[in-house]
Design goal:
Elements lengths: L7 E2 L4 E2 L2 E2 L4 E5 L4 E5 L4 E5 L7 E3 L10 E6 L6 E6 L6 E7 L2 E9 L12 E8 L4 E8 L10 E5 L2 E6 L2 E6 L5 E3 L2 E8 L3 E9 L12 H17 L8 H13 L1 E2 L4 E2 L22 E2 L2 H11 L3 H18 L5 E2 L10 E3 L10 E3 L10 H15 L6 H17 L18 H21 L5 H18 L1 E2 L4 E2 L26 H14 E2 L3 E2 L14 E2 H13 L3 H12 L11 E2 L6 E2 L5 H20 L11
Antiparallel strand pairs: 1-9, 2-3, 4-5, 5-6, 6-7, 8-13, 9-10, 10-11, 11-12, 12-19, 13-18, 14-15, 15-16, 16-19, 17-18, 20-21, 22-23, 24-25, 26-27, 28-29, 30-31, 31-32
Helix pairs in contact: 2-12, 3-4, 3-5, 3-12, 5-7, 6-7, 7-8, 10-11, 10-12, 11-12
Length: about 625
């Protein structure tokens, strides 16, 4: 369902006690984020950092999870919608009745140009712009996955909530009361009045709400996002989609270490009611190449360089390439299951991620690809970084011919996945091109020998002449949608019959209506169906560009962008049957895919601005 307008009936918003994943907006601060539902409820926030325990987690358990409810008490005939203040991550939720704005919420987490300053605060601005309105307010934090009793104390200019050594304070001048483990009340707001509520972490005393300087923080935060966007070289075509995607990506960076979380959430299901529920509040090595390329496409070369070097320093400290890393360097990656019901009954609910210990060979290629791209845009490739490339290739010489868990992080027996081998080839091939262009010394002959060996191995074992397609793993008789990326890597020309045959085979076997792709056809050992992985559709757009099917690429891209939620945000997947967004939200890789595809299309528009190609611009 396309929900561009976002206007929905407030009384119809919840299903079985939950707001749909796509019916949320995100506020963020480069340290953490919160999700705000269309009904004004904050039902997800980890404080003080992305990878801290969730304090508000009703999105994963409507009973045990914490929340901040602020909405009109009367729901009959009330509709709601959300929008961002232009070119910011400041979110406005409005409630309408009788053609008027009944009530308005403006939400943000303070953000400044000084990225290491920590404001573990959520500021909520309440307005009654046109009529008197009774507002329902209820605040209930949840500590230690609701395994710890919450103690609520009225003090100072608000309330404090404590549990297992953690503390949350609520500052406001509203008439609220303590109700066991929560604070609640019905507040009458007169026409034209406004109020602030500030929820903060780690402060033991509830200060006067005016002490938080919310207006000043709002101006600083707005200025921060506007300044950042103004530095972008956003493509003229699809400017809005790219800007929103870039703002979402920037919000997912953890400034103290420079790393980026894949998403700010954990265990939002890839299949509602099933077990495909993972923690994405970590930095994935494979994302590095996409992040560096996308940032540089937008003109953020300095940020691309910083991100790459920060990731390298993290790998150096760990003394090995792991699949994922804690963004704060403080979080245990061990996977646990907690006694939450899960979103719409999707269990188990997991925190931590077992994939951190898997061998995923494609990640080595991803990192070298990122460095190679940086060199092409004039980034600083120091001798230190060049030496790091050599270290990666040395490890890859020993690893490339081993079975691994693939880009999809299968929890089944490792196999010789074709995509992994192609990424290993890409690492050696790009290192040779980069090193020679920079006139650096390197073991070029040895690297070429390894690259040629890998390529020969892939063409012999990863391609099936009967299918006229590359296959998921050596010996398989089926393909894999991850192979949509190999026409973009250069192992063969994009128009080579084997490349085009692979894309056509994936279209035939894995593509559904709306240019959505299932990742693979085989059983991965998990219950519940596998849904459409949205990034694949944007890879498909890039393939169409490479195969010179420009008009189709444009049409596919535009149809995909329309699948974003009312704010232009995307989760990881789309349900094949309902068309709803599912999985962790918002998802960095999906937004990276939007940026890359839009950039490629924009470059194509520039080349085809005359003649029949001009029909591409509208």
């Amino acid at each position: 369902m396309n929900q561009i307008s976002g206007i929905v009936e407030l009384s119809n918003l919840r299903r079985n006690g939950y707001v749909r994943i796509q019916d949320h907006g995100m506020i963020a601060s480069n340290r953490t984020a919160a999700l705000v539902a269309l009904d004004g409820t904050i039902d997800w926030a980890c404080l003080p950092n992305f990878d801290s325990d969730p304090i508000f987690s009703a999105l994963l358990d409507k009973s045990k999870g914490g929340y901040i409810i602020i909405k009109p008490n009367e729901e009959s005939g009330v509709t709601c919608n959300q929008h961002y203040l232009e070119q910011t991550n400041i979110l406005v939720t409005e409630f309408y009745k009788g053609g008027k704005v009944l009530f308005r919420l403006t939400d943000f987490i303070p953000t400044s140009e000084y990225g290491t300053i920590n404001f573990p605060e959520i500021h909520r601005y309440l307005e009654a712009p046109s009529v008197d309105v009774v507002v329902k307010v209820k605040v209930r934090p949840s500590f230690d996955y609701d395994r710890t009793k919450t103690i609520v104390t009225k003090e100072g200019h608000g309330f404090s909530f404590t549990g297992k050594g953690d503390i949350i304070t609520l500052s406001c001048d509203l008439d609220l009361r303590v109700d066991r483990d929560s604070v609640s009340g019905l507040v009458t707001m007169r026409k034209g009045t406004s109020k602030w509520i500030v929820v903060s972490h780690g402060i033991s005393y509830a200060h006067r709400v005016t002490d938080y300087r919310s207006y000043e923080r709002l101006e600083e935060t707005s200025s921060y996002w506007h300044t950042w966007v103004s530095q972008s070289q956003t493509p003229g075509v699809y400017h809005h989609s790219v800007t929103r995607s870039s703002l979402a990506l920037k919000a997912l960076f953890f400034e103290p270490t420079g790393l980026m979380v894949a998403a700010p959430t954990s265990s939002l299901p890839e299949c509602v009611g099933g077990e495909r529920n993972w923690d994405y509040r970590y930095a994935w090595i494979r994302d590095t190449a996409y992040v560096v390329e996308s940032l540089s496409m937008l003109g953020y070369k300095k940020e691309a360089i910083k991100f790459l070097y920060d990731m390298m320093d993290t790998i150096r400290r760990e003394k090995r390439i792991r699949t994922i890393y804690s963004v704060s360097s403080q979080t245990d990656l061990d996977e646990i299951e907690v006694d939450f019901d899960g979103y719409m009954g999707s269990r188990p609910v997991r925190f931590g991620n077992k994939a951190s210990d898997q061998l995923q060979i494609d990640e080595y290629g991803s990192f070298v690809t990122a460095i190679s791209h940086l060199s092409k845009i004039g980034g600083i490739i120091s001798s230190y970084l060049w030496g790091f490339v050599g270290d990666i290739l040395k490890d890859l010489e020993e690893l490339w011919n081993k079975p691994d868990s693939s880009i999809w992080e299968f929890r089944t027996e490792p196999r010789h996945y074709t995509y992994s081998k192609v990424m290993a080839w890409s690492a050696f091939n790009r290192a040779i091109e980069m090193g020679k262009a920079l006139n650096y010394t390197g073991q070029y002959q040895k690297w070429k020998t390894v690259a040629d060996t890998i390529k020969s191995d892939v063409l012999r074992n990863g391609y099936d002449p009967e299918l006229n397609s590359f296959v998921q793993y050596y010996g398989a008789k089926h393909t894999d949608a991850a192979l949509l990326r190999i026409p973009l890597l250069g192992i063969l020309p994009p128009t080579d019959p084997r490349m085009m045959g692979t894309v056509r085979k994936i279209e035939q076997d894995l593509m559904a209506d709306g240019f959505l792709f299932k990742r693979y056809p085989n059983d991965d050992g998990l219950k519940c169906k596998d849904n459409a992985f949205t990034l694949l559709s944007f890879w498909y757009v890039e393939d169409l560009v490479e195969m010179k099917e420009y008009l189709k690429a444009r049409d596919v891209f535009e149809s995909l962008v329309e699948r974003g939620n009312h704010l232009g945000l995307f989760s990881e997947e789309i349900d094949f049957e309902t068309g709803e967004q599912i999985g962790n939200f918002p998802q960095a890789m999906t937004h990276l895919g939007i940026i890359r595809a839009a950039y490629r299309l924009n470059q194509t528009f520039k080349k085809n601005v005359n003649g029949k190609g001009s029909r591409m611009i509208h």
